[in-house]
Amino acid sequence: VQLQESGGGSVQSGGSLSLSCAVSGYSVTWYCMGWFRQAPGKEREGVAFVSSYAETTYADSVKGRFTIARDNAKNTLLLQMNSLKPEDTAMYFCAADPSRGRHCRTSVPQYANWGQGTQVTVSS
After folding, report:
1. What are the pLDDT digits (tens) for 78-100?
2. Integer Cα distance of 122 and 12 in angstroms
3. In DSSP terms, which residues pair with 97 in a beta bridge?
4. Parallel, antiparallel, or unpaired: how do β-strands 90-97 and 76-81 relate?
């Protein structure tokens, strides 16, 4: 099982970025898939999740600005980030929780597989 993020970078406040997570070893539709982020000196936090039932969950801080999706043909997890703010600056990770509930669990310890992360920097 491997997850590999891409698409990070630097952008000004109000801008947009798209992140991708290429998944190998299983189908991206089988399990809960999530995006987490970790800023320097802070704990890793959940950002957005999509379940095997295609139910999505978002952190309050990103609702209305971020969209999680799956590209089933490419077996890839996506995160579209719009209206970015400086406080969105962090390392972003994709992760998989081998559970198949209608709604995803959202805490870090429940996610067994992780990518190495991609940096997102938003300047004011």
Report:
1. 999 999 999 999 999 999 998 88
2. 5
3. 32
4. unpaired
Closest CA to 61 of 90, 20, 33, 104: 90
Q: Comparing C-alpha atoms, which of 19, 27, 16 is closest to residue 119? A: 19
Distance CA 2, CA 118 (A): 15
| Six-digit token string for 88 | 């969105």
For every residue of 8-67, which 3-state class applies, written as one string? CEEEECCCCEEEEEEEECCCCCCCEEEEEEECCCCCCEEEEEECCCCCEEECCCCCCCEE
pLDDT, tens digit (0-9, with 9 covering 90-100), for 37-78: 999 999 999 999 999 999 999 999 999 999 999 999 999 999
